[in-house]
Write a structure and sequence with these properties.
The protein is of the alpha+beta class. Helix content is 55%, strand content 21%. Pfam families: FliL.
Length: 184
Amino acid sequence: MAETSGASQGGKTPKKTLVLRLVALVLLCAAALAGGVAVSAGPDRVMALLGFAKSADNDEAAQPAEDDASASHGLPREHIIVTPFQEIIVNITATTATGRETSRFLKLNLALAYDDRIAGAENIEARKLFLRDSFQEYLRQLNEDDLRGSIGLVRLKSELLRRARAISDSDAPQEFLIADLIVQ
């Protein structure tokens, strides 16, 4: 009889252990979820959600977010001028699956954002045709693989920006905005 009561107690212990493990797992998942929300929202928002932040702090925290939406990558809008370029269509080389080189068309619509407060900014509009010519010269040297993925886009923008700064003889060019980039 003692063995039977010991077996029944032994049978309850694994069930209790299993329940405790499940509760611990659920609590761990809840803590991980709360931590993920806290990291993604940021410390200021978490404190505001918990009611520890003052309302004046919330208004100040919301104000820069609105300013960021109206600014281009941290640049004040009133000093940035965006000048579009005519559509550029050039031939680029591509390699087929069999290894044969072929020609593709690259169509590019872009605009240059520059800061009019920086010395030499007035040179940009005057040298716009020279900029376009330099861009075409660079683009014709590209291979289709040079434009693949986000790294290809970053390289393209940085090379165009480098050329724009060299031709305008100024650091006024800040960024290129690409409306269309089609390889056909």
